[in-house]
């Protein structure tokens, strides 16, 4: 992560960093507005005041991404995933695992709320929760948070809410309760004008326009995986200092991509995967190409992003989940965005986008 100095924060970002320690706060902003940076500096500010905040993320890649920057601020031990933190909290407080649904991966919020309602409220031991990508957490968590934490700060973007189990801004504000301060941050300091214009086609609302110019996103057809790898390897050689991400929807595809990169002896490539006994995490402190599933990309940013399997997305160009996923993936890229597909026709999600927004490239 390119963590700016606190002296380089915008006026809006500085305001958020310096919010009062006590209270409940919802900070919303589009991709590129610096929500993760603000979450880190909000956490740092609370630590500087002698408090004990926890910075919570939904995914493991985002935790690793934040932890790499947090180390530079002396905050590494405060960064945890939502499932990791809540499970540890429940075990510490009630000496058992938290109640779960039949799938064993989703918490049983009704049972959790019932147990907390019976507990002694004087047992509250969490001073401050800071939540990044808060739209990814279930709405019930925010009601629970009012029972287990004194103060809560949530950073969220409703345009990155992909499923109905995730939270809207209004749900977060309502569940945090009366008196919650909502502050919207309106800037895009990450993307170029060209990438933001493309991403804006998939957003539910008008987005702030950045000032930096660059190259338009490119669409490439390929027939073999080797062609994808050749293009990526060529890009990394031509741009040795760039942080590059390769993404695909399915874990089998990213494993194939990693295998091909390994064959070409791209030793700096790292993969994030959770499949059976195969478990690998990414060290964001190390340079090199990162390979992740599309659902793991949220909250991250790179100089260049390669989306390698556009043909696997919904054939319905109006499908909301697909459009939000495209918005998320496109806005990860600072400088260059490459969309790749195979098949006889362009994928419906991009087929109607004009050439002056999406460059068709051989």
UniProtKB/TrEMBL annotation:
SUPFAM superfamilies registered for this protein in UniProt: P-loop containing nucleoside triphosphate hydrolases
GO CC term (a single one): cytosol
GO terms assigned for molecular function: 3'-5' DNA helicase activity; ATP binding; DNA binding
Coiled-coil segments on the chain, per record: none
GO biological process, one term: recombinational repair
Domain of life: Bacteria
UvrD-like helicase C-terminal domain mapped to chain residues: 291-340
Pfam families recorded: AAA_19, UvrD_C_2
PANTHER family per UniProt: ATP-DEPENDENT DNA HELICASE SRS2, UVRD / RECB / PCRA DNA HELICASE FAMILY MEMBER
Protein name listed in UniProt: UvrD-like helicase C-terminal domain-containing protein
Organism: Planotetraspora phitsanulokensis
